Amino acid sequence: MDTEIAQSLRRLYFVRFAFALVWAALLVITASTLGPVSVALLVLYPLFDVAAALIDARSSKAGTLYVNVALSLLAAAGLAVAASSGIPAVLRVWGIWAVVAGVVQLVVGVARRGLGGQWPMILSGGISVLAGASFVFQATTDGASLAALAGYATLGGVFFLVSALRLGARSRRVAQAG
């Protein structure tokens, strides 16, 4: 059963990596203003997180992930509303979401460490907490920018890639040993 979960997570992590890179590139292109495309991208990111968490929760039976689903749905709605108030409001909503989702990611990563490949997810959860706090702080400064969110997504995507690669390596070792 653990091997099936690990393979399912590996595929999901590769998809999350690709999505994060494409999303970040598109956000960088549109990040100078809160126009229709950048707002759509901002709302799309947590909605994609909802879909990924649902897939993950169903395949791994990790009930904790349903907390992430609820948080990401709230974040999507919050970002849609915050976009009408400007970039600082968006950064505050994104920052709060990043902090809380980072804590959930830490909890899930620690619970799954026996599967292997979870240390990048644990680190990513911790970094998400710190990055979220920095977004909330950045919202109070002049020159608040959406570009930092692209960096956040890219780094998160890299952590998903590293986890996927580590899960694959561990699965190969288990298969060779068994």
Uncertain runs with pLDDT below 50, 5 residues or more?
A: none
Outline the biggest β-sheet: none
Helix content: over 70%
Helix count, per DSSP? 6
Structure, described:
- This protein has helices at 2-30, 36-60, 65-82, 87-111, 119-138, 147-177.
- With 178 residues, it is mostly helical.
- The chain has one domain.
- The radius of gyration is 16 Å and the shape is elongated.
Tags for this model:
elongated; mainly alpha; 0% strand; 6 helices; 178 residues
What's this, in brief?
The chain is an all-alpha fold and 178 residues long.
Secondary-structure topology with pairs:
Elements: H1 2-30, H2 36-60, H3 65-82, H4 87-111, H5 119-138, H6 147-177
